[in-house]
């Protein structure tokens, strides 16, 4: 526990090849990965809602059988990153409509995880400190045509950042996240 790892995630696009990102997770983190391949399906959201309601009912009745970390932590983390993508998709659709654009969702993925900071003793992880929760959206993509693309693209980049900070504020979390827009 506490060892730093290397991770490469991605997906294959026939016309572009591999689209990957690299991360450095720490052994012991609990991570929920959400894929937004072409929007969030109603059945996917309904299944997650049913799972969470079942867990809530078991907690209320103090029936702790078959309640593990997936039900207690995993579903909450997964719901958070999935809701981020759903909110982002709605905002993309509104932005595209206002700018008279046709937009197409491209595959996207992100992680919501517990954040563990290892404490070292002579270069060896000896202890870990849970330092909060982290959302990382490595790939969020869309294509568009018609309308004023450059103005809308700049607005979408800023809006995607503001969606993360808005989402954090709604959940009561810290929003000290640096804004970095790649050029």
Structure commentary:
By secondary structure, this protein is an alpha+beta fold. The chain has one domain. Helices cover 39% and strands 32% of the residues. The protein has 3 helices and 7 strands. The strands form 3 sheets. Strands 3-5-6 form a 3-stranded antiparallel beta sheet, with helices on one face. It has a two-stranded antiparallel sheet with strand order 1-2. A hairpin with a 2-residue loop joins β5 and β6. α1 runs antiparallel to α2 and α2 packs antiparallel against α3.
Question: What is the overall pLDDT average?
Answer: 78
Q: Which H/E pattern describes the elements? A: EEEHHEEEEH
Main sheet summary: 3 strands, antiparallel
Structural class, from helix and strand content? Answer: alpha+beta
- Segments where pLDDT lies below 50 for 5+ residues? 146-154, 177-183
- The number of helices is 3
Give me the Rg, rounded: 19 Å
In what range is the share of β-strand residues? 25-35%
**How would the global form be characterised?**
globular
Strand order of the largest sheet: 3-5-6
User: How many strands in all?
Assistant: 7
Number of domains: 1
Distance between the termini: 37 Å
Residue share in helices?
25-40%
